[in-house]
Design goal:
- It is a single chain.
- About 35% of the residues lie in helices and about 0% in strands.
- By secondary structure, it is mainly alpha-helical.
- It has one domain.
- It is globular, with a radius of gyration of 12 Å.
- The protein starts with about 25 loop residues before the first helix and ends in a 6-residue tail after the last helix.
Length: about 60
Amino acid sequence: MQTPTALENVDSCENWLPRRVMSVWRIAGILHALEGWEEHECGYTMSNIDKVWEACLKHGFQPL
């Protein structure tokens, strides 16, 4: 996903991604911190996908 323009000092998280693009699993960690979510997802256990998607967009992350 494309990172928000307000996010500073970001080139890319992995050397195979374009500039200002992050893997979704990294963004999920950021969202957990920003939203104050306490649950931990692992394996096939996931939060409500609609809730996570809305939080992503609310914080300025955009799909490619």
